[in-house]
Amino acid sequence: MLRTYEADLHIHSCLSPCGEWEMSPLRIIRRAREAGLGLIAVCDHNSCENAAALQRAGRREGIAVLAGLEVCTREEVHVLALFADLERALALQDWVYEGLAGENRPELFGWQVVADEHDEVQGENPRLLIGATRWGLAETVRRIHGLEGLCIAAHVDRQAHGILNQLGFIPPDPPFDGVEVSWRVPLSEARARFPEIGDLPCLTASDAHRLAEIGRARTQLRLASPALGELRLALRGEAGRGILPS
Description:
globular; alpha/beta; 8 helices; 27% helix
C-alpha cells in the first residue's frame, strides 16, 4: 500500500566541518521526528562516517535514514550520493578519500566529529572534508551509479557549488537521477525559475547544518516504504510512486 512520506534528503551531521556539534546523530533523529519527517538522508561533506550511527538511532526512533555523501567534484560542483545500504556508501567514501587531499584545520574550518548513536564522541576525522576531490563530475556520477546509488545535483539554485553556477548547464551525460533546489526556492517555482532543470525530477531539502533547520524544506513522496528502491521509482514516476506537488 502506498502512503505519503515527508522526506528531507540533505542533512549534515557534526562530521561536516560546517555542522554544529548539536548535529549529533541522536539529536538529528529526535528533531526529525519532531518535524514530522519519515525519511531523511545524512549527506556529510565527502564522508559517511556518521551514517551508521544515524541509522541505528533512526531504527530505535522510527525514522528511516539513507546513507549518503555530499561529494565535491574537481569542478567544485556538489552532488548528493544516496545508497540503499551502508556498504555501498562506504565504498564510495573510500574512493572519495583517495581523491581528497589536505588536512583539516579546525580553527579555520570547524571540527569534524565522529559520534555513535548515543551521541558519544568516537573521534575526529582529520581529512580536509570541506575541500574538492580530484575526481571530475562525470566520473563521480558514473562511480555513484556503478555502486547502484542515486546521484542528485545539489542545490542547483545556489551560487556556491551549484552546478548551474559552476558550469552554466546540466550535462545530459552521464545523466543525473534528479536535481535539488534549496529551501530558498519553492519547489512549485523551481522549473520556471531554472529552466535548465528541464524534465529532470526535482526535489527540495533543508541542507541543514543546525537542528532548527531540519525539515525547513522537505519533499512529499508517494512510496510503499521509505527505501532507496522506492525513491528511485518515485523519481521516475513509476508504479504509482512519485513526487507530490507542493
